[in-house]
Fold each of these.
Amino acid sequence: MTDKGEKREWWADGIRFECQGSGQCCVSHGEFGFVWMTLEDRRRMAATLGMTTSAFTRAHCLLTDGLYRLKDGAGEACVFLKDKRCTVYEGRPAQCRTWPFWPEVMSAKTWAAEVAGFCPGVGKGRLHTGEEIAATLEEQRRSEETLVRGG
Ligand code: SF4
């Protein structure tokens, strides 16, 4: 507990993370299999590809349970992953920009089992402070809310 009586998160002192370019987070891992796309995500990625948002959505997205997501690529990899590199990196969606600091994986148990198990960037590189992680979690939370609201 903190002075204010709030629960102190296990990651409050920060976590080292640096992408190692493995492409592992761009391949389906069970429940984390889909790349969800808010309207802002679709606009950004469409602009990166030089397409209109509606043309991009028709060409590259599907509706699942009323929510937009990217169509699957071959072998459960993202369709935009080529030679382990994201070919739309500048326009990648919030879900990809905020990885691995997602609300649904930030329990110590899920982190160890679901993230550290396959992501070689965990424990490497610079320390992301607790404040930075909290901000990234909030960004991802807002993106998920926007998606569910139909935005
Ligand atoms: S959009 Fe890019 S970063 Fe996101 S899953 Fe696809 S290849 Fe990976």
Amino acid sequence: MHHKKVLACVASSLCLCSAQVQAWGAVGHELVGSIAEQLLAGTPAAEKVHKIIGMDLSQAAVWADCAKGVNPVNGEFVYYSSPRFKECRQFESDEGKARMIDYVRRNWDACQPTASEEACHKQYHYADVAIQQPKYAAGLAGTSDHDIVAAINAATLVLEGKPAPAPFSIVDQREAILMLAHYLGDIHEPMHIGSVYLDNEGKEINPSREQLDPTTGTKGGNDIDFHGPSLHYVWDDVAKDIDPQHPDPAWVAEAKAIKPSAGNVLTWSTQWADDSLLQAKKAFDGVSFSHVAVHSHPWSANYPDNYVEMKAAIQHEQLVKAGAHLAQLLAAVVK
Ligand SMILES: [Zn+2]
């Protein structure tokens, strides 16, 4: 889930509504993991990865969202299991729950979230770069030293045997791979990188970080209606006919044909964010906004014809890239 939708429930004793929307949905994340598995099959990196995490990448890909089920209750971190999230059951042994609780405790507030921001580990899943920007760059509004670009680099550093930079706390290579298996999916989801900031008339603005008025943000599309669900949800939601355990061979072939990203591995997350930002521009192309609340979203919007078809085509492209890039990153750093 993206951003602040859990605010309404923090006052209740158990945060039952956390992790309501899983980014890409579990299916999208599992598919990314499955594609990466097929690309890595038979390589030393695959063997090493499986030894470190004790599961395959498709299973690992949902862990960071499942960990959002951990929240403080009367000063103690507690994992609440939602029966709706079947994909999280694999992590709900006593040991599995203890690991999620430990991760969330260590990654809760070291980033010093402001009143309008969520816990640190939840912020690791996205950035909110204004779509007018040509590229992702540190220092822009909607970026931080603990956004998704930084999170991927922090986990990569741990796999290279170096310490994770603050505010990240990554306890071992296992945790680093679990994080990457998820974030590689998220960074390719256009709504996790590009965002619109809107003035009161619904006109798109391009704020600097210093002049950012939080009320102009749209939370990666979570605040924008799409005929009932949020625009963010619609982009996370993948085609119903996708079987994440058996990726379409044509998609796997497309992933195999994707060239490894260029340069040092620590520049890759920025390159992927740049690309997702371009996709986000397409996702907002021709969309107009008005500050009329609808279906509990503060913004309503008009969409061009064929929006759903355009979305499906971009999702296909991005899921394939995510699988390829996850395989390439692990092959490069798991030695
Ligand atoms: Zn996520």
